[in-house]
Amino acid sequence: MLSARDLHFRYASGEFALAIPELIVKPGEALGIMGPSGAGKTTLLKLLTGILTPQRGTVQFGETSLSTLTETTRREFRLRRLGLVFQDFALLDYLSVEDNLLLPMRLSGGLTEDIQTKAQQVLERLEMMPHWKRLTSDLSQGERQRVAVARSLLHEPLAVFADEPTSSLDGARKDEVMALLTEDVKARNTALIVVTHDGEMQRWFDRVVDFKDLRA
Ligand code: ADP
Ligand code: MG
After folding, report:
1. Quick one: pLDDT at residue 31?
2. How do residues 132-163 score in pLDDT, each as one tens digit?
3. 42 ligand 1 Cβ < 6 A
4. What CATH number is given for 2-214 in this structure?
5. Which residue puts its alpha carbon closest to atom 12 of ligand 1?
6. How far is it, in rounded angstroms, from Cα 152 to Cα 181?
7. Which atom of ligand 1 is nearest to 197's Cα?
8. Which residues lie closer than 8 Å to 114 by C-beta, 6 or more apart?
9. Strand pairing category for 29-34 and 17-25
10. Is the beta carbon of 55 within 6 A of some atom in ligand 1?
């Protein structure tokens, strides 16, 4: 499903550098990558999703190698085929929950009735339907995080990358989000990659790797 090999990356400004010899995620696998704050987890997710470009190495999804795509087609691939839950949620604050979920597919012409139904089902599960018409800027951090998680799944991506997806949640809400993400990966035989510093999350994954063991 996903294979990354021999990744080398250094920020143009700053000292931080990352080398990852190999990371492979199989279809249907939920992988947890655990590491402390500042270790480079967000940087790794940005490399795996083509937001950042490594100075060396390859990231491949099935037959598609990110390095062979142009900037435009890589962006398109990310929007259409990958699901991302960003650490800062990356919501459009001046839009409603509904528009945050459906706008990407409205714009690309891919919005179907099935997707609208699925959006409501996912929000129902996350107990977010009462907020359907509200602006995301008026929501709590935990509510915003659940909108970001819901959005990552709607277009049926082949892999979902989630950056600390339960950081603003506790207890039952954390479980709801993790159950939703892990059920989706099993039901559709896709891949889920979650980075977190929360040790409590481990039970949700098929495989847990320590971030420092991934590094060269
Ligand atoms: P984590 O997600 O594990 O907390 P990050 O990947 O966000 O770690 O950051 C790893 C390191 O890279 C940190 O030292 C951070 O300061 C640095 N860093 C993050 N973004 C940038 C950037 N845009 N330019 C320079 N350095 C950065
Ligand atoms: Mg981070």
Report:
1. 98
2. 999 999 999 999 999 999 999 999 999 999 99
3. yes
4. 3.40.50.300
5. 16
6. 9
7. 3
8. none
9. unpaired
10. no
